[in-house]
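Section: protein folds

Sequence with per-residue tokens
===
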Amino acid sequence: MPFSRRVDFLIVDWNISPAQRCSHTLQMISLSLFMSKLPLVFFITACVAFTSCDDNSHHESGRSYKMGFQNSAPRFDDINLYMQSLKLWTTRADAAIIVTEVPWQVYFSGADFIDYVVDNYKDLAAFYASKDLELYVCVDPQNGLDRASDAIALVQEGRSISEPEIQEVYRRFVVVMDSVLTPAHLGLALETNLIRAIASPAIYNGVKTAASNAALDLEARNSTAILSISVQAEMAWGKLGGGTYTGVEQDFTDFPFIAELGISSYPYFGYETPEEMPANYYSRLLNGRNIPVFVSEGGWASGSVPDSQFTRNEDIQERYIEHHHHLLTDAHATAYFQLLFTDIDESALPPDVPPNIVYFTSIGLVRRDFSPKPALTAWDELFALHLQQ
């Protein structure tokens, strides 16, 4: 469920301060910037109560996955908040992700995609590189907050991803993002099983055709990016409608270029507590395939969620981060992204943001004033674990 908003910014250098976690002195840096998409968070304490590291055998081997965020801020209209956020989260990450819908308004205005990508992302990507953050980019050809619909800008123009001309526009944007940013990883469609379940066949087939042809475009230009799509975990497990486990086999069939699998997961829509999630929650989706898997977005809301019968609070969010480590370890995950580092100020949302964003405004690891939630400590403890390369 991504969307993207332009933010012009100046990259600056900040001093790095060390932090100590569980008898290991680690370099940790602090703070975050860009907003595009909505949802994620997971962790587990590196040392039980910071007292008995030797007893925590499930942590002895460290973590298999890199950790990171997409830049976010409590308000979309304050560049200083984006800069403050960027500074905070890059100290506790070894990867970064950019998730965006196609900027259809650029195409309809006759402007150039290259200029747009340079203006919005090139300096940001360079900053991530200066911090040795591995870059993931995901381009969403559909509607990040409404998987039943085309992107808002397409709907407003009476257009659809089902049209070959619009698919060509998407493909052009993908190639520009790849050529300008040279990401290590590139996602070509997001939450495809959810789109297939609730969108029209025309929209789903449009996404499938566009992404498959974009993969051929990238192959033709010798792109080095590892290609993926993402699937929605709760849909695969039958949690978004009271069904049963269905898996994602159709997605592997429909998108044969998949070299690694991204997973979107917002389990607070289907589980009362994080501990109810089985250890094979991610690994089962691979169905025996030996390909990398990463969490491209997700998290657990710490505030009330509309129409939910389940309790949401900051303590449960912290437990989710702690429990998430088991799921990631079982799947031998390679990366884990929390899209929102900060909570979102609902009172300051622009009028064009879909109202269902309220389902995701409290999944950040810090509150709107940047004060830390308990989940941030859990994240930091996971980040302090040895990364197995």
Q: What stands out?
A: The longest strand covers residues 95-101. The longest helix spans residues 201-220. Residues 90 and 251 are 33 Å apart (CA to CA). DSSP finds twelve helices and ten strands in the chain.
